[in-house]
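INFO  loader      accepted 1 record
INFO  loader      residues=287
INFO  predictor   begin
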Amino acid sequence: MIDHDLPPSLLSYLENEGRGALKTCDGVPGGTINQTRRIETTGGFKGIAKFAADIPADFYAIEAQGLAELRGTGFRVPDVIATSADFILLEDLGTHPPEEVDWRAFGRAVARLHQWHDPLFGFAHDNYIGRLRQTNSRTANGHEFFAQHRIHAYLSLPLCELATTEDDRRNIGKFASKLADFIPSQPASLLHGDLWSGNIIPLGDGQAGLIDPAVYFGWAEADLTASWLYPGVPADFFDAYNEVNPLEPGYMERFPLLAVREWLAILAQFGPNPVVNNIRSVIAPYV
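INFO  predictor   done
INFO  writer      dumping tokens
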């Protein structure tokens, strides 16, 4: 018997589809929301299984829709083999070191993704950032969209309230009301939505694929902020990006301002965290 913690529904799927019995089940590092396993069956099937307890019933179906949206732009994403209320089964893209990624080529690819535009910000449906519902109500004004759905939306959530003071929330609201003063107008670009290094998968041939999307039409700079904020994405990526989709001057100085959304999402999901001090420092000159 293979020692595993896979949900019974996934085992039933494998059996019903004639995939064979479970042969191996190995942990895959990364992520805080899902348990992730690389599995192989006696029938020769290989794949990546993601599962979690106490998640919304549409969680994995919406992830599959996001992957399909990115695939339609030409980006390499894992094929979705099956979804249910408590698991998603994906194609295994393999494990390769990030040093093999041609980051300049990847930067140009993301720039081309951001050239898919829409007249309105938001998306056809809501989705998730981590476990949090991400509201994507269609909005004509990008500053209003970001203020309402990417800043204010977090402030009333219980864990965010626990992690901030009343003064913090008041000051963050003032900061959000002034976005147009320091964030230039940008078109509504198709975004991955959570473009940090952990969601960029080296494919072993210099290319990179994407996983765990939270897609919507928004500011390109908001997508790039996650790439800048977390370790793993080098400066070459941003240089090459600007060759294809030039950003307004000063974009690096704006990343910390847009990172307020990233930090609020951390507080809203996990509660008190030192990133609240980052928020206080960044917004102080604006309130």
